[in-house]
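Handout, page 2. Input:
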Amino acid sequence: MQGSLSFYQGCFRRNVSVVTIYASLGEEALCYSLNETEVTAVICGAKELKKLAEVSGQLETVKYIICMDDETPSSASSVAQSGRWRVVSVADVEKLGRENPVDAALPLSEDVAVIMYTSGSTGLPKGVMMTHGNVLAVVSSVRTIVTGLEDKDVYLAYLPLAHILEIAAENVVAGAGSAIGYGTPMTLTDTSNKIKRGTKGDATVLRPTVMAAVPAILDRVRDGVQKKVDAKGGLTKKLFDFAYARRISAINGSWFGARGIELLLWNFLVFRKVRAVLGGRIRFLLSGGAPLSGDTQRFINICLGAPICQGYGLTETCAGGTFSEFDDPSVGRVGNPVPCSYIKLIDWPEGGYLISNSPMPRGEIVIGGPNVTLGYFKNEAKTKEVYKVDERGMRWFYTGDIGQFHADGCLEIIDRKKDIVKLQHGEYISLGKVEAALVVSPYVENIMLDADPFHSYCVALVVAAQPALEEWASKKGIAYTDFAELCEKEDTIKELQASLLKAAKAARLEKLEIPTKIKLLSDPWTPETGLVTAALKLKREAVRKAFFEELSKLYES
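Output:
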């Protein structure tokens, strides 16, 4: 929950383990997580409190609710009156602390700091147990790499603290004495979905200097800028395209690329307006949570004039894994191992990924070191499946991600074991790789590819990008009553398929990787719908379950 870093630190000071649960979890997963960890006190907002009140009869150990908002829903008050739990405000807690000061009960390195429940892309969520040693290993490692942080910096936080990337980032910036401002993904920029027309987004108001961003957000920024440039056309578009091409030439080493005074000129004439999208003061961006496309990384880097350092890690490794160098101009890579991590690749013959591959070794990524967490809470079987201890006592986590090491030691994520599906005639298809290639279509807000061993082709569910599609319909003179109707029209589907084919050809996809049939959807996938995580990553099994009938019809037709 936004703004709760102080609660984290307060609990750490008293050696109280913190349990984090995504507010977007369904009722079953929410009750399961709270009961499994025997939680006695919950910190939440009024919206989450209303949800808790609805399932209060299923919560076995909850006694106290600390509400971050001034007003509490009537349903929660009724539960409190029944004596089932007590609802208190943040002000009440602060008063209690002032009147009853206690000494610190500082934790040991091996004590559990956080039990972080994953968003549960399949089945019930798993609680990852992180020790204080795990957290400090990652935070101290990042501080040795990102050395320029200072107390004048301003960090914009919009991910929930139930996300490991946000815990690591906020602790790093807090340790440097930087200020933290809180926003949300839906109010981030002036054109975000939840921003009232004529008002400003979080970034414009806060004017941050530092941000941690997930690829989905950066993709939206890139698409928004590109659409504005295309809409203005004329001289504005020509200037932008020329300035961008000059910067690309410079980065690629061309003598004729924009440098020095010319670079300052283009920054002032063209890119200054783009930088205003995120407040105009960004000097450093961290991207994590999912692979960032090379095109988006290069675009944001040039337009914002600030480095984007990609990182790679998982909840199970306390966000620690790799981190790219500040001055690394390459794209599509996630950097070298951070100081607290050891990384190796192991063969995965079924997928054709071997450390003997040429020109680069490839295989499943395995991470070891003091950042590797204890395992899953009350789930020894799953813990033994993916956590291994070698003969030297080193603890390793088997990620399920496929990577390759470049000659300079940088890691590149190229696939994921769970995303690889064998088609009817024995060909393998990587769902995630294809989705990353097709989502660049201007008409696509989100996409999920689907394939199975009983068919020789794949299909796709496509969430349409409403502004771009409505603009196309207006130019074509297509009449419709609402966006849902537009998405059902045959001409619209043909236009989408043509756009996907164009993106597929640009990415050099094989014919079998291009979806034969698509279902166009008008409603966006948000964390509230349960179809994507808080980091906006696809929850594949949840989407399959929600759109089972639509997928079945695609295969039948």
